[in-house]
Design brief:
heterodimer; A: mainly alpha; about 80% helix; B: three-stranded antiparallel β-sheet; 10 strands; globular
Chain lengths: ~220, ~270
């Protein structure tokens, strides 16, 4: 069992969820309540990572984040280390790739709030911030929690992008999914089996939790 | 009527979110991998070294108390990653051209050191209908009578052992016939994993992997004549960001204990010491 890889994966997934939480709430709420020009395009862009092959995404990341790219050079001058083959690079990739998993359930969660409730809050003189914290977030929480659970599990399992931009560096970019691949190549079937069983258990727990939460949203809607 | 329900739930939801955020903050707080990276240099090594270099790194740790972090892959992939800024401090290439190219572009400290010469073997898993015959005569016969469905080599486009396997098969005039049956490992260690599984009838892999205790029990192997392919001259080099530990590990590899381990894994040694 490669505990370094496992804790690295947990850290990556945890930070991804943490950073996606405000992004998801802001964008999910916007898409749920506002109508604006290009909303269809925005929704399509958010959903794009669902269908985009991870290697394609990885390739574009290499091209746009690499040492030869303007973003890569900017990062290098500011932080003194490259963006590809580092944990930070993986984190950015993981945030972008998890956008649909975070935003869509949150959007559904916000949409499930009856509009009269929000209007009542506004009539009572609640500021938008106050209403968000006291009314909307508490009501949308099953959607928000689903989003967090899904992005967490999805990050743990991500393989294609990590392989493309990660470089399998122990303690930096060798996540649990990569470690399984590496152990198989090293003829270490026992370790691969243990790590795979662990990921299977986590995935099962995730899907059970997600189904439970989405039933709760359904009940609320009905 | 809905009100009581709506008010009852929110508090618990909020608390859950806060709990989740606290748990995440805890996870985010662990920073030890970054600490370790400062002391333990990162080593990129060709996959044929997987077992030999692990043994050398263990003996280096015993002798000096210092450790290195090993990553194995295909030499071509590592060369590309080094160009893109990967933070490796030492690079072991199964094909010296990758090192010499990097040196020409100023990405390494010098032109590096030739540390070993590799060999390829025909690896046949237990139960395969093919004989482990280094002259590849039985492979030729097997291709003619249909005993071959799958044959593993490393990817010739970026794995030196795959390139040499292709050269040997071409030398024997088998390349055209065997191509439809080939499965390509991403590096030679994956090719070895394929070649020893029951899903292929064999493959061409690194001698150093066939000699390792893990792999040798999975089948039989025979050396392929080294005049059938260009030599696998393996070169190691310190990269621009190499630190003191990396330098000591690099020096350690040229000492008798490390050379003995290389020899045990079937590598020819430069300087006539083999």
């Amino acid at each position: 069992m490669d505990w370094t890889a496992f804790s690295l994966s947990l850290k990556l997934a945890g930070l991804t969820v943490l950073l996606l939480l405000p992004i998801g709430v802001a964008v999910g709420r916007l898409l749920a309540y506002r109508d604006f020009a290009g909303k269809g395009v925005a929704e399509a862009l958010v959903a794009l990572p669902l269908v985009l092959p991870p290697t394609v995404f990885g390739y574009y990341l290499l091209v746009s984040f690499g040492a030869a790219s303007p973003i890569g050079q900017f990062w290098q001058t500011v932080f003194g280390r490259p963006l590809v083959f580092t944990f930070e690079g993986l984190l950015i990739a993981s945030i972008v790739f998890n956008l649909p998993f975070a935003i869509q359930p949150m959007q559904r969660g916000f949409e499930a709030i009856p509009s009269d409730v929000r209007e009542a809050a506004a009539c009572c003189g609640m500021s938008p911030w106050h209403a968000l914290i006291k009314i909307e977030l508490p009501l949308a929480w099953p959607g928000i929690l689903t989003a967090m659970v899904l992005s967490f599990a999805h990050t743990l399992g991500e393989f294609g992008i990590v392989l493309m931009v990660g470089g399998a560096i122990p303690g930096e970019t060798r996540t649990i999914a990569i470690a399984i691949y590496d152990r198989v190549q090293a003829f270490d079937g026992a370790a691969a089996a243990r790590m795979s069983a662990l990921l299977l258990a986590i995935s099962l727990a995730t899907i059970a939790l997600t189904f439970m939460l989405s039933r709760r949203i359904g009940r609320r809607l009905g | 009527m809905r009100r009581p329900l709506l008010i009852g739930r929110p508090i618990c939801g909020c608390r859950l979110l806060r709990l989740a955020a606290a748990a995440l903050a805890l996870i985010a707080g662990t920073r030890e991998p970054a600490l370790a990276s400062a002391e333990e240099p990162l080593v990129a090594a060709a996959s044929d070294l997987r077992f030999a270099l692990e043994e050398i790194a263990a003996s280096f740790r015993n002798d000096t108390g210092e450790s290195v972090r090993l990553t194995f892959g295909s030499s071509g992939n590592f060369a590309r990653q080094i160009r893109q800024g990967a933070p490796f401090q030492i690079f072991f290439s199964a094909d010296e051209d990758y090192v010499l190219d990097l040196a020409r572009d100023g990405l390494t400290r010098d032109e590096g050191t030739l540390y070993a010469v590799g060999r390829i073997v025909l690896m046949i898993p237990h139960g395969s209908p093919i004989k482990s015959d280094g002259s590849l005569d039985d492979l030729k016969a097997a291709l003619a009578d249909g005993r071959i469905t799958r044959f593993a080599i490393a990817n010739p486009t970026h794995a030196p052992y795959g390139k040499r396997a292709e050269e040997a098969l071409r030398h024997k005039g088998l390349w055209g016939k065997i191509r439809p049956h080939l499965v390509y490992g991403e590096n030679v260690s994956q090719a070895a994993q394929y070649a020893t599984s029951a899903d292929t009838q064999g493959g061409i892999i690194a001698y150093s992997l066939a000699l390792s205790p893990t792999v040798s029990g999975l089948g039989s192997y025979a050396l392929i004549p080294d005049e059938w392919h260009s030599p696998l001259r393996q070169r190691m080099v310190l990269l621009k960001n190499a630190g003191a530990t990396a330098e000591r590990f690099h020096g350690y590899l040229q000492q008798p204990p490390a050379r003995a381990i290389f020899r045990k894994f079937g590598f020819g040694m430069p300087g006539g010491a083999s």
